[in-house]
Amino acid sequence: MKRKAMGATSSCHDRRLSSTFIIPVEILEEIFLNLPPDQVVCTCQLVCRQWKEVTNSESLWVERCRREGYRPRNASRKPKDWKLFYFMCKKRRNLLKNPIAEHQFDNWKIVENGGDKWAVEDVMVPHPDERVKKNFVTSYFSCMKSQLIHLEKEGYNPSFMDDFQPAIKISDWYAPRWDCGSQYEICVELLNIEKKPIQTFSPETVHFEQWNDQQWNQNYGPGVRYIKFTHGGKDTKFWAGWYGIRVTNSCVEICPSEDI
């Protein structure tokens, strides 16, 4: 009886093996392209060796990027890792809250509030981004404000930041008044878990003379647990009111290195 039972078990096992077959790669790719990307990475690749190879294949992620409209901004720089490029693009967004003064000073910490203090006003000169209708404006003594970005809370966990050390792109828009001199300052710090600086981006103060063309200007700085963004300035004529530098549409992004 014992040998008979063993024989039956073996036969059943053989039937299970005989029912296993290899799915063509093209069909697997199409299935994975129609599943949520997190499910593909976290679940599908654990099924078997073939599925793992397909989920990690370059062709799968190139096609996924194509279908969802993700492509390098510099066409001459192709990603080394298309899967990483895909997820970087999908998560990419401005990590600063309230960058264009839609909600007054919500989410900003006022560091210095000199003269007649910070204010919010309608843009005097149209901004290149038509969505920008307001800007922050400084007064006749130093006005500075800052925002602290907690990267893990934004979805960038410590292991990701340490293993991949992704590029960090900073941009800010600033403009003087045409009839008053002013100065602009920016400082961006990459901080560790104790909020101590690892790296600091702090260019020289930008000065504008009186009677300038008051056009919008933009500056960049590429690349961590936190990012501290601080900017501001003042006017240089010490006029009462708000004649100092204007700032708006500030941006901090974690982005593919191909886009730096």
From TrEMBL:
InterPro entries: F-box-assoc_dom, F-box-like_dom_sf, F-box_dom, F-box_only, Galactose-bd-like_sf. GO terms for biological process: ERAD pathway; glycoprotein catabolic process; SCF-dependent proteasomal ubiquitin-dependent protein catabolic process. Keywords: Ubl conjugation pathway. GO terms for molecular function: ubiquitin protein ligase activity. Transmembrane segments: none annotated. It comes from the Eukaryota. SUPFAM superfamilies: F-box domain, Galactose-binding domain-like. Signal peptide: none annotated. Residues 85-256 form the FBA domain. GO terms for cellular component: cytoplasm; SCF ubiquitin ligase complex. Residues 17-64 form the F-box domain. Pfam families: F-box-like, FBA. This is F-box only protein 6-like isoform X2. It comes from Betta splendens. The gene is LOC114859400.
